[in-house]
Design a protein that fits this description.
The protein is α+β, with helices and mostly antiparallel strands. The chain contains eleven helices and 20 strands. The two termini are 38 Å apart. The relative contact order is 0.17.
């Protein structure tokens, strides 16, 4: 085995210090492991902008994860609680209303700007002596040996770890260099995102209207008349909507969503392509994938980040169990429990979101009528709605320890 100096050796190296990678680092730090986080872009300061156009829906399970990692207090200060969700078909009269009152809960979740979560995580990371953060390194190569994973940097320095984790997004460098294939599908849609001010209060409600071209969501932010929007449209329409004048865009948005009155754009517009993918494997010898490196879904239900956070907490669970049994945390045999656990749980959500996307794609008139009838029928099924809400909030399924309230 190649010799190396001690300061370049770690128990776990995490490539990707976004919200999911940082969450894993904090979870593992509590176990006393030596962690290295590598990311050149995650901690770029964008607080000079009034709002972050990238927002996330936080489920109760994700809230508990953040609480147990001591970052929730810093997040909830800028989090908007939402108590209701209104969903309707713009092509007909079908609609569904969800309320926290349906399940006796104080809310359905929170909408938070990504930068708020990222800053809270970064501040927590800096409080741990056993976490090192490198925002300057460029990785050249990955090599897996029997007893360690080896990263060679651009300056020829090496970093060694018992376990390497890829948390580096949809185009994961770790996944590609580990030769892990993916199954992917494009939706031929782009999501246009921005932040808007509406004449009327958003009423702590998440609004979503399904158009033939794709859904338009208004997500409430912590200021009462400020919302983030996610508008799924064709690539050509997204390009047009990004380039037309502000007044023309506001007019088109008001025509599509007249429910909260006059709309004023508060931030830049941006668009990104939509699709779904899943990695062939989540683990190999000395390697694991979490978050978007392992899977992605359509954003229509806001479950992408929550799935990634559960990946991170579940992997931390498995690693802790292996440590307690004094086993090698990087052996594929010992990582297989994480793969079985999260692949099965994520498949349910991946299948559901893909099904919803297809359900609301352009359909013949008869099928549109059936869809609208089905929505109206579903809206009256109190028990079924309650089960769906509980699952969406993270109350159902096989959850990691960190996803329970007051876990210590």
């Amino acid at each position: 085995m190649q010799q190396h100096i001690e300061e370049n050796s770690f128990d776990v190296i995490i490539v990707g210090a976004g919200m999911v990678g940082s969450t894993l680092a904090l979870a593992l730090a509590k176990q006393g492991l030596q962690i290295l986080l590598l990311d050149k872009f995650a901690f770029k300061d964008n607080w000079q902008e009034k709002y972050d156009i990238r927002v996330s829906a936080i489920t109760r399970a994700s809230q508990y994860i953040f609480e147990n990692l001591n970052v929730w207090d810093a997040i909830k200060e800028y989090a908007c609680v939402y108590e209701n969700m209104q969903v309707w078909d713009a092509s007909g009269k079908g609609e569904i209303a969800f309320s926290c009152l349906d399940i006796g809960e104080p809310n359905l979740g929170f909408i938070v700007e990504n930068r708020v979560i990222q800053r809270a995580l970064f501040n927590a990371l800096t409080m741990h002596d056993n976490i090192q953060i490198d925002t300057s390194a460029t990785i050249n190569t990955l090599h897996i040996e029997k007893n360690q994973a080896i990263l060679t940097l651009e300056n020829e320095q090496k970093r060694f770890a018992s376990l390497l984790v890829g948390a580096d997004g949809k185009r994961s460098w770790v996944r590609e260099n580990a030769n892990i294939g993916i199954t992917a599908k494009s939706y031929s849609q782009h999501a246009l995102v921005t932040v808007v001010e509406t004449a009327q209060d958003h009423q702590n409600t998440a609004w979503q209207s399904f158009f033939p071209e794709g859904p338009l969501a208004f997500l409430p932010l912590y200021t009462k008349n400020i919302s983030a929007i996610v508008w799924s449209v064709s690539p050509n329409r997204a390009k047009t909507l990004c380039n037309i004048s502000t007044s023309d865009f506001e007019q088109q948005l008001e025509q599509a969503f007249p429910h909260l009155g006059k709309i004023t754009i508060k931030e830049k517009r941006a668009a990104f392509p939509l699709g779904t993918h899943k990695a062939q494997y989540y683990v190999q010898e000395r390697l694991a994938l979490i978050g978007d490196a392992a899977h992605s879904v359509h954003p229509l239900a806001g479950q992408g980040l929550n799935m990634g956070l559960l990946d991170a907490a579940s992997l931390a669970n498995v690693i802790q169990q292996q440590q307690q049994k004094k086993r090698d945390i990087g052996l594929q045999y010992n990582l297989n429990a994480y793969q079985r656990w999260r692949k099965a749980e994520n498949l349910v959500m991946l299948t559901a979101m893909d099904g919803f996307q297809r359900l609301f794609s352009p359909q013949p008139l008869l099928l549109q009528q059936v869809r609208n009838y089905g929505m109206s029928w579903f809206n009256k099924q109190t028990l079924i709605k309650k089960i769906l809400i509980q699952y969406a909030m993270g109350f159902e399924g096989h959850l990691p320890d960190l996803a329970y309230s007051r876990f210590l």
